[in-house]
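re: that complex we talked abt at group meeting.

here r the seqs, copy pasted straight from the sheet so there may be weird spacing, ignore it
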Amino acid sequence: MYWNQSMECMPEGELKKLQYKSLKELVNNLYSFNAFYSQKMKAEGVRPDDISSLNDITKLPFMNKSDLRDNYPNKMFTARKRDVVRYHVSSGTTGKPTLVGYTQNDIEFWTESLARALTSVGIGKDDVMQVSYGYGLFTGGLGLHYGAEKVGATVLPAGTGSTERQLELMVDLDVTAIACTPSYLVHMGDVAKKMGIDLRKDTKLRKAVLGAEPWSESMRRYIEDDMGIQAYDIYGTSEISGPMFTDCAEKKGVHIWGDMMIVEIIDPESGESLEPGQDGELVMTVLKKEAMPMIRYRIKDLTAIIEEECACGRTSPRIKRITGRSDDMLIIRGINVFPSQVEHTLVQMPEVDGKHYMIIVDRVGALDFMTVQVEMRPEAFSDKVDDMIRLKKHISSELKKYLNIAVEVELVAPEALPRFMGKAKRVTDRRKF
Amino acid sequence: MVEEHMIKQLSIFINNEPGGLAKVAAALKDCNVNLKAFNIAESSGFGVFRAIVDDPDRACGELSKKGIVVKETDVIAIPMTNRPGGLLDVAKVIGDAHINVEYGYAYADNNKASFFFRVDDIAAAVGKLKEAGMKVLTEKDI
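got the structure back, here u go
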C-alpha cells in the first residue's frame, strides 16, 4: 500500500532530476529574495549559477540551530506574514526559543509526508489512532494528528498525561494504533498492568509510531515481544517541520521522501561529505517549504544512509536508526535539553554557583528523570531543613521554566563537584537504550 | 537581657555522599572543636549537622576556612532534670507559653540535662519562659 506511489517509487534517475530541479529553483529564489540566505551564500562566495548538478549542493553553506536562534523570531522567514498559518516553538540552546512557521502549503506537505509514512506501516481508514504526543508548541501532537486524519484514521487527540484515563479510552474506543514516545508507551504498559488491563487481550492496540527520543532495537523488541505491539520508528525535528518520516513495514530504516528532502551525511569534524553506509552527521535540505526553507541544515543527529533498495519497493533514501547526537543535546521525555540551558538558568541564581553543576539522567521504569547537582553558596545555607527544601524547589521550578521538564535538584557543598581541565563532562546518562 | 540567653549553635551542611558526616567530623577534629551536644537532620539529598560547641565563633571561622558550609544560629537552652518526666516539665511550659519549637535536641550527663531548641522569635520566647518561672541558660551555664 502506497499513499503516493509515483513519488514514493520514482526511479532513482528521475528522482535525482526532480531533486536537482527543486534545489535549483529553491536556491535561485532564496538568493534573489531573501537577505539572510543571499548574505550567507555571498559570504561563502557561491552563486546560484554554481549549482549545475545535484552534487553541487556541497558548495552551499551549512545552516545551524544558531542561525535560527540568531534570527529569532522570524528574520529567516521567506513567506509574507499574512501567508503564515501556524507557528511551532522549540527550546533553544541558551534558553532562547526557536520559532518555526508554516504556510498552508507547508502544512499540507508535512501532512502528505506523514500520510505516506502512516500508510507505509499499514495505518489507514480502519484504524483508531491515539495521539499521545504533546499538543501545542511541540510539533508532535498536531503533526501526527493531521497525518492520521489525512489517511482517514479516527484520531483520539489524547495528548500527554492522565495515563489511566488514556488507557480507559484506549479500551472503550478500540484504539488500534498509538503515536507517542517509546518510554511513554512502556509506562502506559506498566500502568495498564496495575489497572488489570491486558493490552493484548483487553485492547486492540497493535501498532505504535514511536519517536521524539532516542530508543533502541532492544526497546523495540520489548514493545513487540512483551507488549504485543508492532513498533515503528518516526523521525523529524521542528526545523524541518516536525516528525515526518517513519520506517515502513519492513522496519529497516526510516524512509526520507526524496521529492521533499535531500539528505547528506557529513563528517561532523571536517564537514566533508561521506559515502552511503558511512556513519556521520545528518544534513537535510528541505526542498518544499515556503515559510522557512532549510538548506543543508545540520541536525546534529548521527546516522548513515542505507543504499540497498528496500523490499517495500519505495525508492526514497533511508537512514539508519539515530545512534546519538553529535553535540551534547539530551532528549528527556521527548524534550530537547542542552546542558547549556541548565547552566544558563543556574548562573543567574544568587543562591548557587551555577558554574559548577552536574546532570544525571536516569530511567526509572520507563520514564526519564533528570537530576541537577549544583554547588550551593554558603550564604544560602540554612539550619532549617524546610528552608533548604524550599530552595531546592525554587531552583527546580526555575529550571522547569526554561527546560519544560521536571528536574530534581541536589544541593552540594562548594568544591564538592568535579572540576574539569579539558572539555567538561557534566552529563552522566545512565539510561540504557 | 535577651542576648545573654542566645546560645550560639553551629549549623553545618552535610553532602549526600558516603562519608559526608565523617568529612565534617574530621574537620571538627582538625579545628580542635569540642562538641557538647549535637543533632543531625537529614532530608532527601542533604543533611544538617547542628552542634553546641566550645568557643563557637572561633570554630565557625576555622571551619569556614576549611571550606565547610557552616553558620552560627541562635538557640535557647533550658535546664531539665535528669529523671523520668524531665522532658514533660519543660515541654509543658513551652506548650503553655505557646512557643513554637522549630527543632530541638538535648544533652544529658549524670548530674544535669539541657534542652536546646530553635524558635523564630527568641526574645519573645525567652520572655514567656521567664514569666512562667523557667530558668533560661546562658553561654556560661553550659
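couple things i noticed - The interface with chain B takes residues 376, 378, 381-385, 388-389, 392, 409-416 of chain A (CB under 8 Å). The mean pLDDT of chain A is 91.
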